[in-house]
Design a protein that fits this description.
Blueprint: H1 15-20, E1 24-26, E2 31-33, H2 40-47, E3 54-55, E4 63-64, H3 66-69, E5 76-80, H4 81-101, E6 104-105, H5 107-110, H6 112-123, E7 135-149, H7 159-167, E8 169-182
Antiparallel strand pairs: 1-2, 3-4, 5-7, 6-7, 7-8
Helix pairs in contact: 4-6
């Protein structure tokens, strides 16, 4: 287990940096992640739920093959509202699985604002029609830090101790992530 404050790796600030550092592109979170933060089984499960479509333009006229998207080379993509909803559930499951395994948690799912955003997506007005033409923009963002969450044996002994145990974290890894922004 790494010592507090120890940096294990970073994915850099570009696709080339990420590839050269051995990072993996996670198509469901649109993030470059170090291998320790990539949940391949979960990514495969979610990517296979639907015949997801990705587009270059807001009107969804120019499609991009999934294999191209999986290379992590696009700074801007458009997807359906349904994709965005399932992206949120994917991120929550990914975080929960990481906590249970005491695995590193990337800065995208570790960011509380993303959880609040997903809550709005799941219960908000804009997701009433999953087949709507509402689009999401995936846009490259800055480097994020990751944290290693310690799962302690005392987790089940009370809410305060559980919160304290989850708050004990180590700076761990860096990831390049994409912002999600509603355009319609």
């Amino acid at each position: 287990m790494p010592q507090e404050g120890q940096k294990l790796s970073q994915c850099g600030s570009s696709r080339d940096d990420a590839v050269s550092r051995g990072c993996q592109f996670d198509i469901m979170s649109f993030s470059w992640l170090p291998p320790a933060c990539y949940d391949e089984a979960l990514a495969i499960e979610f990517a296979g739920l639907r015949g997801w479509q990705y587009f270059r333009d807001e009107n969804r006229t120019t499609g991009i093959p999934r294999k191209e998207v999986a290379l992590g080379q696009y700074d801007l993509l458009y997807v359906s509202t349904e994709y965005h909803v399932l992206h949120c559930t994917y991120m929550w499951r990914k975080m929960h699985r990481a906590v249970l395994k005491a695995a590193p948690i990337d800065g995208y799912i570790g960011e509380y604002n993303h959880t609040k955003h997903c809550e709005e997506v799941l219960v908000g007005e804009r997701t009433k029609d999953l087949n709507s033409t509402a689009l999401m923009v995936m846009k490259v963002s800055l480097l994020w830090l990751l944290r290693q969450v310690k799962v302690c044996s005392r987790l089940g002994s009370g809410k305060d101790e559980m919160a304290a145990a989850l708050m004990e974290s180590l700076d761990c890894l860096g990831s390049l992530r994409y912002e999600v922004k509603r355009v319609r």
